[in-house]
Amino acid sequence: MIRNATLLIIIALASCNNPIVAEKAANDDPTSKVIFPTKNSVHELPPELSEISGITFLSDTVLVAIQDEEGILYYYNLPQNKIIKKQTFAGAGDYEDLARVGKDMYVITSEGKLTQIKNFESTNPVVNTVATPFTKKNDIEGMAYDSKNHRLLIAPKEHGLDENKTTKQIYGFDLKTMKFNPEPAFSIRLDDISAQFEGDALEESSKKFLKAIGNQNMNKVFRSSAITLNEKTGEIYVLSSLNGLIIILTPQGVMNQIIQFSGVEYKQPEGIAFAPNGKLYISNEGSKSGIGNIIEITHEH
């Protein structure tokens, strides 16, 4: 019995890593919303950032990153491929994402602890903590700044506050009132995602695999790992390390497109951000290799 279960897992993982199957299925269907990156460049990271978990940009060439074990902001120059500054803001923790809001920086942990670093680039930044209703069971991994509504968008990896297992929810934190809105700003229906992959690699590797081992939980198709906004279009990009997907939502929250990516360079996608020039980047933890990276991707849109 154990041998049969192991065989099913191997088959499922093999089909999950076959982008040709998925690309052919999507391209054969003119109504498909699935698109694929057309080009990428990879920036390998130093060992200090092997556990990189979130990125946000200061300029077209300089970003700030965090890793999920230490309360440190890492300033990283992409063309130079090196850390140019390190700034400690707190002790050890499970830090998952960060967002720049003008002169302030916000960092969030997996259990939903929100840290505000006021005037973060100054010699004497002020660090405050802000309570949210999340706990470890929500497993927060994504956060981004929505400048139009002057709010933070926060995405749980697991279920939302209402424990609905059929959707992935995104919540808003109002930066004017510094209050959290318990009603989701956006909800992504998991069956809407799976419907775009009927008959292809995602169907085979996720849905059929889960059924084979007796797990009907569609929460395993898409789990929010990071989130960012395209300031030019207002679209929301939600990354899932699981199955290598980015869901693109309109400003109204309607699923517009899905980016599917695969390859050895996408080791463990945990961060996503746009540079001011509009280029899109994904950061990857080092996984078993121990070498993290940041990838610039382009896609048809």
UniProtKB/TrEMBL annotation:
Keyword list, A-Z: Cell membrane, Membrane
Subcellular location: Cell membrane
One Pfam family matching this protein: SdiA-regulated
Family matches, as InterPro entries: YjiK/CarP
Cellular component terms per the entry's GO annotation: plasma membrane
Superkingdom of the organism of origin: Bacteria
Protein name: Uncharacterized protein YjiK
Native source species: Daejeonella lutea
